[in-house]
Specification:
Keywords: DNA-binding. This is HTH CENPB-type domain-containing protein. It comes from Paxillus rubicundulus Ve08.2h10. By secondary structure, the protein is mainly α. It folds into two domains: 2-45, no CATH class; 52-114, no CATH class. The protein contains seven helices and no strands. It is elongated. The protein starts with a helix and ends with a helix.
Length: 117
């Protein structure tokens, strides 16, 4: 049964990470198998600066610039994203712009496209 599988996974994790209590809820597994979002995914989607389509457009823009011989650096990408979001969100967007963690996450999320530039 699913409960038995969850219990077995808990025991394996407990054996590997003796200092941490890990609980695998069979209800959470069912939810995820039916296409439900994890808490982390929901938080990310609800607090994302850009929609997936906007991120896709930025990746396309990055690749186009790189193909033309003008690859963006981490800093210039941040300037472009900050400018876009400042126009779009106005006062709701912080003056400091997106953070360094956002840039790292963006690069990691789109690594298959942008790591070569």
């Amino acid at each position: 049964s699913l409960s038995a599988i969850c219990w077995e996974v808990q025991e394996e994790w407990r054996a590997q990470k003796k200092d941490k209590e890990i609980i695998v809820s069979h209800n959470a597994v069912i939810w995820r198998l039916q296409g439900g979002r994890s808490c982390q995914q929901a938080k990310s989607e609800n607090h994302a600066w850009l929609t997936p389509k906007e991120e896709e457009n930025i990746v396309t823009y990055l690749l186009d610039l790189a193909a033309w011989g003008f690859p963006l650096t981490h800093k210039t990408l941040k300037l472009h994203v900050d400018a876009l979001l400042q126009v779009q969100l106005r006062d709701a967007f912080p003056e400091t712009g997106v953070g360094h963690n956002w840039m790292d996450c963006f690069a990691a999320h789109h690594a298959e496209h942008v790591t070569q530039y």
